[in-house]
Records
---
Amino acid sequence: MNFLKGKAVGWYISLAAMIAAIVSVIVYAVRGGDSTNLSPVDSTAVTMFVIGIVCNAIVLIKDFGIGGFVPFVFYTIVVGVLLNSEMLFLSNVLTSIDNNVLDGAWFVFIVTALLAVLLSAAAAVMRMTKKEKASA
């Protein structure tokens, strides 16, 4: 527990962002796209997720100022790639073509990806470690 003793709120928020990203990439990959192959698993999204998660883990281990911003960048890229790759699927759902519907897994990976972006943005502007008090 000594490891957690010097951690500030930003560290815990960054940890929550990483957990949300891990959940999102797992659900996204396991879902495997939809039955009509309109939203196949995008390798770019998975790669950016993995790079963001690794960067997030590094930031959690070693607090180095601007480094907290890096996971936010990768998670934001992932959301952009996901919105682009899901566009055809979403248009078919909205127009009721091919009887496509938004399944629970789709909502889980989109919500957790957005949560990862928001949490990592908040963590990027917060301290990861508590300030050490000066000795008198």
Note: The mean pLDDT is 84.
---
Amino acid sequence: MERYFKPISMEQFEEMINPIIEDDEFPHEMPEVMENDISHLYFNFENYEYSEYDSLDTYPCGPRTLPNGMPCLFVNAGGDWEQAICFIIYFDGAELRGYIPTKGNVWNRNAKCAFGSEGEMGGEYTGQETLCQAYERLLQEAKSWLPEDTFTKIAKELQVQKNVQPDHFSFYAMLDLFISEKAIIEDIVENIKERA
């Protein structure tokens, strides 16, 4: 599906988004089109952040204007049992829309859900190895822009963690610092084009 945004000022965007996020039911209730836009991935809204001063994991959070001129709101969400995900809300020229970037987001691609919620999808928990594979994928996505020495260091450390201590999350949090934000923004800029 082709996605487009209409360039507007951050002030105009905030005038549109503020009534939605200031509603006590946000993010549990959003406009139907936004819910539909993010419904292809199962995750929980038990914990959520949309302030530029907070985030879950190391994902970008809060209102931003991206390098392509698109204002958007980064939202992080996930249950206590889940690896949080990041999505955005943006204006397509007609209405506010939602989008979940693939790059930089860590979620179970097979079960189409946040890590930790595989059981909610009727499948078995796929285990930590799948999470390691997700981080390997993120690292490969970042290979084109990470400095070579940083890439090599992270790749070696990831291999050690995978073989020795695959359930050790502190290293994965370090990986997020290098990969998530830049990859997420890159994904958005690649996939949501300015409306002509």
Note: Residues 68 and 95 are 19 Å apart (CA to CA).
